[in-house]
């Protein structure tokens, strides 16, 4: 049986990954010159409260040296490893992990490490891990699982909205003018992950509640002709659990899907979106 590894940007609950024997490599984030994420994480609420107070964190991708050290420890007990990291369209971690995997396999023949570009982020990445666990536990090989995930990964739909446009401006997702005017007008953008793994603005909605409802409308659009894999949906949030629960209840009422994972957005993704993000993840006919 192969071993599954993801990274901290998958935003899956720690208990879930422990229960299902999934490894996790950490990306780092820096606040006030202090590096976090390597076993010294800030609680999510404290992190977002610091952002609300004006702190401007930065992030750091996994580098090949860190990835090599992680894999070297892992191959002592695991000989086949499937790695599902953050989209290459957002982070260079994928390339670092791929370089390290190739170096490990050269230095230690007999092990196999496959790094897949998920083209996903946050619990979209988590959804792909969830499906990989299902396939592994059914007895599928690494190659069979990889083939399934590659064929289906563009059916994992990401849609999200934010409460504060400033952090999207910092990340280059909206212009300064759009951020200022949008904030004054109460405009809430709706974004998604495209087929290249980039974040794209797809709509603008006036008002927070309407923006949350619009995500569920988008889910209906994407599931209209899609009849498979309606067993679970996932929601991540930037320290706004009430809004996440509101969206979850809308989904349950409209589609009858009761199985849901809700978890706080991690600091690495949260750095670029800020507090107030709500993101909905599900499988649909296309992104």
How would you describe the overall organization of this protein?
The chain is an alpha/beta fold. The protein folds into 2 domains: 3-153, Rossmann fold (3-Layer(aba) Sandwich); 155-283, 2-Layer Sandwich (Hypothetical Protein Tm841, Chain: A,domain 3), CATH 3.30.1180. Helices cover 42% and strands 23% of the residues. The chain has 11 helices and 13 strands. A hairpin with a 2-residue loop joins strand 3 (28-31) and strand 4 (34-36). It is globular and about 55 Å long. The mean pLDDT is 92.
What keywords describe this structure?
single chain; 287 residues; alpha/beta; Rossmann fold; Hypothetical Protein Tm841, Chain: A,domain 3; four-stranded parallel β-sheet; 13 strands; globular
Q: What is the CA-atom radius of gyration, in angstroms?
A: 19 Å
Uncertain stretches? none
- How many distinct helices? 11
Principal-axis shape: globular
Largest sheet: 6 strands, mixed
Brief write-up:
The chain has 287 residues and is α/β, with parallel strands linked by helices.
List the helices and strands and how they pair.
Blueprint: E1 3-7, H1 14-19, E2 22-25, E3 28-31, E4 34-36, H2 44-52, E5 58-60, H3 64-74, E6 80-84, H4 93-107, E7 112-115, H5 122-137, H6 142-152, E8 156-161, H7 166-170, H8 176-185, E9 187-193, E10 199-206, H9 208-223, E11 233-237, H10 241-255, E12 260-264, H11 267-273, E13 278-283
Parallel strand pairs: 1-2, 1-6, 6-7, 11-12
Antiparallel strand pairs: 3-4, 3-5, 8-9, 8-13, 9-10, 11-13
Helix pairs in contact: 3-4, 5-6, 9-10
């Amino acid at each position: 049986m192969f071993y599954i590894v993801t990274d901290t940007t998958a935003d899956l609950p720690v208990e879930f990954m422990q229960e299902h024997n999934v490894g996790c490599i950490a990306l780092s984030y820096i606040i006030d010159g202090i590096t976090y994420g390597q076993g010294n994480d800030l609680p999510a609420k404290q992190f977002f409260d610091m952002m609300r107070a004006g702190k401007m964190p930065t992030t750091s991708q996994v580098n090949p040296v860190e990835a090599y050290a992680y894999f070297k420890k892992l191959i002592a007990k695991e000989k086949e490893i499937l790695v599902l990291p953050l989209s290459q369209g957002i982070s260079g971690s994928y390339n670092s992990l791929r370089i390290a995997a190739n170096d490990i396999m050269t230095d230690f023949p007999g092990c196999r490490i496959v790094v897949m570009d998920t083209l996903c982020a946050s619990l979209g990445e988590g959804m792909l891990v969830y499906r990989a666990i299902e396939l592994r536990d059914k007895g599928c090989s690494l190659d069979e699982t990889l083939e399934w995930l590659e064929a289906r990964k563009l059916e994992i739909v990401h849609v999200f909205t934010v409460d504060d446009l400033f952090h999207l401006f910092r990340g280059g997702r909206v212009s300064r003018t759009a951020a200022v005017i949008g904030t004054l007008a109460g405009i809430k953008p709706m974004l998604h992950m495209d087929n290249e793994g980039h974040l794209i603005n797809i709509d603008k909605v006036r008002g927070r509640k309407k923006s949350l409802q619009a995500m569920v409308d988008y889910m209906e659009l994407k599931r209209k002709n899609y009849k498979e894999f309606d067993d679970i949906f996932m929601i991540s949030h930037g320290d706004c659990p009430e809004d996440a629960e509101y969206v979850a209840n809308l989904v349950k009422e409209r589609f009858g899907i009761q199985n849901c994972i809700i978890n706080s957005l991690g600091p690495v993704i949260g750095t670029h979106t800020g507090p107030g993000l709500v993101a909905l993840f599900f499988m649909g006919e296309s992104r």
